[in-house]
Design a protein that fits this description.
mainly beta, OB fold (Dihydrolipoamide Acetyltransferase, E2P), five-stranded mixed barrel, 4% helix
Length: 101
């Protein structure tokens, strides 16, 4: 029985922030998840670093990106970049400081 493309392409997707892009065609994405403590009921924030494949090296530091699970591409890389959701505009040093006004 052949698999349909819809059932085969059901892969995990995560949204996170790029915290590293120094490697060739690879970005490091920090994914945040919020959980409730089972006993104390306090909401906790947990972070995970995931390595993702970026073919065009388009993602920059601070960008919000969507990544999807894929086959293992290297020892650490099991994710690929799907799209860039928000661009992060870097702040230039000295711009907007009170000393210039």
């Amino acid at each position: 029985m052949p698999e349909t493309s819809a059932s085969r392409n059901h892969r995990k997707e995560r949204v996170g922030q790029v915290i590293g892009n120094r490697m060739a065609k690879t970005i490091v994405v920090r994914v945040e998840r919020r959980i409730r403590h089972p006993r104390f009921k306090k909401v906790l924030t947990r972070f995970k670093k995931l390595y993702a494949h970026d073919e065009q090296s388009a993602a920059r530091l601070g960008d919000r990106v969507r990544i999807a699970e894929t086959r293992p591409l290297s020892k650490l890389k099991n994710w690929r970049l799907v799209e860039i959701l928000d661009r992060h505009e870097p702040i230039e040093p000295g711009a907007g400081s009170a000393a210039e006004v």
